[in-house]
Each structure stands twice: as C-alpha cells, then as structure tokens.
Design a protein that fits this description.
The chain is an all-alpha fold. The protein is built from twelve helices and two strands; from the N terminus they run αααααααββααααα. It is about 75% helix and about 5% strand. β1 and β2 form a beta hairpin. α2 runs antiparallel to α10.
C-alpha cells in the first residue's frame, strides 16, 4: 500500500501538474486493473467465495464513491484550490481516509461479532439511507440542479478556524505558513479537513454496505483501499462530465436498499434455519446490472437533451 501511494505521489504525478483527462483515464484503468489482479490473487490463494466477496465489496465501494466526486468539486470551488494543487490535497486526504476507515471497519466487525442483532440495525440504516438518497435526488431533479452548500459556514470549518488561525492567502500551496512569527493554516488545510470529515460521513454509509458482503477484515479493508486509491484519478477523469451520469445516483440508492434488505434477510434466514439466502454471486450480478442500466439510461438521456438543444 505504501509503495502504491509513493508511486502515485512521486511517479504518476509531478508536483504542480494539472492532470488532464487522458492521463486520468489511463491511471483510473491502471487502478482498476490492479484491483482485478489482486482479486485474481485472492481467488488462487483463498478460493472462489473470498474472491467474489472482494469483487462485490470493491464494486459497491467504487460505486458509492461517485458521490465523493461531487463533494470534491464543491470543496475545491469553495476554497479556490487551483487544479494544479488539487491532487496533492486529495493525496493527503485519502491517506488519512485509509487510517480512519481501518478504525471504522475494525469497530464495525467487532460489533457484528459481539452483537449479531446489529445486522438488523446496519441493514435498516442502509434501507433508510437509500430511501433518503432517492428522495433527495428526486427533489434536486425537480429543482433542476444539485443543491450546493457554502462549506465555509459548516460547523467543522468554523471549529477549525477557532482552534488555529487561518489565512485566506492561497498564493503558496502549503497547509501551514508562518506569518508574523505565527503558524497559521491555509485554505489548503481547510480543504483537507473537509475532505476527511466528508469521507467519514460517506464511510458511515459505505462500510455497513460492504459488511453486508463480508465480515472478513482483510477482504473489507483491501476492497476499500483499492476503491479509494483510484478515487483521485477517477475525479480528474470525470470532474467535467460527472453531472451527465444522472441515473447513476438513483442506481446507488437502489443498491443501498438492496444491500440493506439482503443484510437483514440473510441474517434472519440464518438465525431461524431457513433455506432462503441471497448469495454473493447474485448480489454481484444485481449490482452490475443496476449500474449498467443506469449508465446506459444516463447516456440516452444526455443524447436526448443534446438533440433538444440543437433543435
């Protein structure tokens, strides 16, 4: 993991470089292929079921991370971070996310092993989250645009400003600077704080979803790592076209509903000795089908809108 992070920071990206779409797409493909190679290694070392669990968990995490892309755009716009410095902020943000996610995953697995009934709590939470996500998207669709918030007014940014002085000067791309013999934070640091906080919020949704697939610490954490490692490249590849994937948002809400339902049904079936069980293979196929349908529908919608504008 450390080697991959070093490669991404110092070999794949030069300091101050603006990552173009072509390079970002190639890097995204690299990370996806690397995850698939790792998945094959799991298959040959541990067998079919762990490999299916990794692939399903990876796909869930990768899909749910799409919403992070919207947040990244909002963060960099709010704090006026130039494109050539965005990768460095994302690098350190995602490095921190790897640590926090390890803590979340360990805590989640420990709770499930100690209190089996929490499966119902996690499953119910995912169902409620899926419903809320769908209603939010429907509301945004009626308004015709995504609701944007001023991150400078968020409580965690205000708290950061109270703890440490913050300068609004972004001329020097550093998290901290010395001004008048005092250490002050910069907008780059505020952007990092928001990235870490929002990832924790997203982890509350994504980690229970992945735990519905597997409670193996190795499978859950590595699938999270590979999904997160490719997130930076995915952001630079899709930041200009992310709004075109209109129906993908709805697919994500349905995926959460399905996973939450699966989590509760499988646990109930296991607890009472019933034969009904939604397998990992079935889950994987359903998730792939939902994502594929949403992407095809989004492309079709974009073409229709383009034709209307041309008329």
């Amino acid at each position: 993991i450390i080697l991959l992070l070093l490669l991404d920071m110092f070999l794949f990206h030069k300091k101050g470089e603006i990552v173009n779409v072509k390079k970002a797409l190639w890097l995204s493909l690299f990370w996806i292929c690397f995850a698939l190679v790792f998945n094959m290694a799991i298959y040959f070392l541990f067998g079919k079921e762990p490999a299916l669990e990794f692939l399903t968990a990876y796909l869930i995490e990768k899909s749910l991370s799409v919403d992070n892309l919207f947040v990244f755009i909002l963060i960099f716009t709010s704090f006026k971070i130039s494109p050539q410095y965005q990768h460095d902020v994302l690098f350190w943000g995602i490095l921190g996310a790897l640590v926090f996610r390890a803590i979340f995953i360990f805590a989640g697995i420990t709770l499930l092993e100690s209190f089996a009934w929490i499966m119902y709590l996690f499953g119910g939470f995912l169902v409620v989250t899926g419903i809320k996500m769908a209603t939010d998207f429907i509301r945004e669709g009626k308004k015709g645009k995504r609701e944007e918030k001023d991150l400078n007014n968020s409580w965690y940014v205000k708290l950061t400003r109270k703890i440490i002085p913050v300068t609004n000067d972004i001329s020097i791309p550093k998290f901290f600077r010395r001004i008048d013999h005092k250490i002050v934070a910069t907008p780059f640091f505020l952007a990092l704080v928001v990235i870490e906080f929002t990832d924790l919020v997203f982890a509350i949704d994504s980690i229970p979803a992945v735990l519905a697939v597997s409670t193996d610490m190795f499978i859950v954490y590595t699938s999270n790592i590979f999904a997160i490692l490719g997130l930076r490249s995915l952001y630079f590849a899709l930041r200009g076209v992310v709004d075109y994937f209109h129906y993908l948002k709805y697919a994500l809400s349905v995926i959460l509903l399905f996973i939450g339902g699966k989590m509760m049904i499988n646990h109930y079936s296991h607890s009472y000795g019933m034969d009904f069980y939604i397998s990992t293979t079935s889950s994987l196929l359903i998730i792939i089908l939902l994502i594929a349908i949403s992407i095809i529908a989004s492309i079709f919608r974009s073409k229709q809108l383009k034709m209307k504008h041309q008329e």
